[in-house]
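hey so i finally got around to running both of the ones u sent me last week. sorry it took forever, my laptop kept dying halfway thru and i had to restart like 3 times lol. anyway pasting them below in the order u listed, first the sequence line then the structure token line for each. didnt double check formatting much so if smth looks off just lmk and ill redo it

first one:
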Amino acid sequence: MFKRALVPIDGSTLSTKASRAAIKLAAEVGARLVAFHAVPTFRTFSYEVPMLADTARSYRAACVVRARKLLGDVAAEARRAEVTCDEVHVYSDQPYLAILREAKRKRCDLILMASHGRKGLRSLLLGSETQKVLTHGDVPVLVYR
């Protein structure tokens, strides 16, 4: 069965439910978890370099606080279920690639992630990170609804 599962967390209600399902599955099969959070890199335009540097620092600091909170919540819940859980957050403008890279780096044999169905024009333009992981990856993916 599965030995190590990566669960991407984005703070949404559905990703929280998916993380709980991942913890339950890991507990049942004796697997480890990798809780993962990808943050878009900071980009802005400004004619004042000091303002830009300060804004970038503030952005990164806020992202670290949020990532630690999101991942810490999953890790705490995993500990209560006696599941070993690593916490990883990265900066990436392409979360699906970051998810696939981390799954490979951590030797995960499953990615359990939420289905984030976008609707209308937004889905045509952006697509779903889950769909991209399914399309571009070679690690089995369990999609949670």
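and the second one:
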Amino acid sequence: MAAPHSRPAYDIGTPGTPWGPEERAVWLQRQQLRRSHQDEVVAPLLAALPPQAELLRYGELDYTRLGLGRYPLHAVRSRQWQAGRPTVLVTGGVHGYETSGVQGALQWIRDDFARAAERFNLLVLPCISPWGYETINRWNPDALDPNRQFKPGSPAAESALAMACVAAQAGEVALHIDLHETTDTDNSEFGPAKAARDGGVFHWDPIPDGFYLVGDTERPAPAFQRALIQAVQQVTHIAEADARGCILGEAVQQHGVINYAKRTLGLCGAMTAARFVTTTEVYPDSPTASPAQCNAAQVAAVNAAIEFLTHASKES
């Protein structure tokens, strides 16, 4: 029996050769709509918008050149924006297939936005990649990962429009929490597809069983990360390091926390100079984690982050 990291070559393209337009077109033809951004994101957002919030349409994704549709992009902002208050940025759905990143953001807007708006300016982008949400996909229709494209001149419209929205609406950001998931399909589909697209080799790592955080190597803020882990472990279990002391090949800095060079990688968490920044990673494929529990973990992380900022603001 093959070892768990032995995978056949991805069945699009030639191993060792990066994809061209033909391979990308074949990949796109395979993608199917599996749920509705309008029904599952926009409609609930409109139905549950608290009076302390205003809804902004910050752009539109136009994929008609690929035979696809147009997707409106929405953000939620504090209605009473006050100069001098710290600003909190919450982003979700950078990877559309990571469901609790979107649904957790919507739940937080519904249940907790009003309370947080009493102390902070708030900006929430709950679903940055709506086509990815509908097709349960990591990439956009151009086979680009938006969470590697948060950089000047970004070729991914999802990333470029999100950065423009934040720059226009938020100014200086004190806290940025980006809501994500790590799923089993990262090994079964998206990792092999990326290797094939880039003409590289897929490096298998075990998917961590549980919640973890990804901090920034330039702004690690270990006490901040620890506070979030302590809050989330009341909701769901925290991922343990593997035998090498790693999660997905990265050295664990403390229980449930690894760091990435966010700016170098073009990650969403790099788009501001926030003092406190983190990426949540929920594990929805755990046999002990329900969708409601995954959403609750995201909400707990956001609330813990805001609570930490509250105390940090008083001390500074």
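quick thing i noticed on the 2nd:
The chain has nine helices and ten strands.
anyway thats it, ttyl
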